[in-house]
Design goal:
The complex is a heterodimer of chains A (120) and B (111). In chain A, 0% of the residues lie in helices and 52% in strands. In chain A, the strands form two sheets. In chain A, strands 2, 4, 5, 6, 9, 10 and 11 form a seven-stranded mixed beta sheet that branches. In chain A, β5 and β6 form a beta hairpin. Chain A is globular. Chain B is built from no helices and nine strands. Chain B is mainly β and 111 residues long. In chain B, the strands form two sheets. In chain B, strands 1, 3, 4, 7, 8 and 9 form a six-stranded mixed beta sheet that branches. The chains are: A mainly beta (120), B mainly beta (111). Chains A and B meet through β5, β9 and β10 of A and β7 and β8 of B.
């Protein structure tokens, strides 16, 4: 079955760039049936959609983060990526990569999540 | 402030029925976009519970059901069990924001 696994640094300094990878196993990221998304959850708080990409490379971002976010995809490596610039303590969160249905955006498969702390 | 509004908490005794509401607007649920529900157990990733308003993924017990009316949706849990104690989130799509939106989450306590 398809599984998603996030990876990347657990600690990022303020003003620097947060970079995460999501590796998809058990299936192809080039499936036209799904978007590949990032969602985050600050400690003790709710879920926030960051954005999504498609195998074609098209992207859609949360307007509140759009100026700082880049999501990209590498179909040859079955991976997609998150880059968030100029981070502050408010970006401290568990970051999840999620497979989302192309038709109605429901997230049917989630990675286990990776905690990223922004601190000097 | 979340685009979709959920009660912060609900509670019920074992065996009882509880419902969790999710209220949106004319740019999301009211516009006809599907509502999805997730269960998040402590320390774990969210798990899809209901998709497209009323559909259960394989493996989700039929004690869980979803409904939608107008700009609101509800998740119902019958025969409440201790293992149902978790946070529950609704999700939809918003045409004004051109993106996915979540409710603020509801903590279910089994008394």
């Amino acid at each position: 079955q398809v599984q998603l696994q996030e990876s990347g640094p657990g600690l990022v300094k303020p003003s620097q760039t947060l970079s995460l990878s999501c590796t998809v196993s058990g299936g192809s990221i080039s499936s036209g049936d799904h978007y590949w998304s990032w969602v985050r959850q600050p400690p003790g708080k709710g879920l926030e959609w960051i954005g999504r990409t498609y195998y074609s490379g098209s992207t859609y971002y949360n307007p509140s983060l759009k100026s700082r976010v880049t999501i990209s995809i590498d179909t040859s490596r079955n991976q997609f990526f998150l880059r968030l610039t100029s981070v502050t303590a408010a970006d401290t969160a568990v970051y999840y990569c999620v497979r989302a249905d192309f038709g109605d955006f429901h997230g049917d498969i989630w990675g286990q999540g990776t905690m990223v702390t922004v601190s000097s | 402030q979340s685009v979709l509004t959920q009660p912060p908490s609900v509670s019920g005794a074992p065996g009882q029925r509880v419902t969790i509401s999710c209220t949106g607007s004319s740019s999301n649920i009211g516009a006809g976009y599907g509502v999805h529900w997730y269960q998040q157990l402590p320390g774990t990733a969210p798990k899809l519970l209901i998709y497209a308003n009323t559909n259960r993924p394989s493996g989700v017990p039929d004690r869980f059901s979803g409904s939608k009316s107008g700009a609101s949706a509800s998740l119902a849990i019958t025969g409440l069990q201790a293992e149902d104690e978790a946070d529950y989130y609704c999700q939809s799509y918003d045409s004004t924001l051109s993106g996915v939106v979540f409710g603020g989450g509801t903590k279910l306590t089994v008394l």
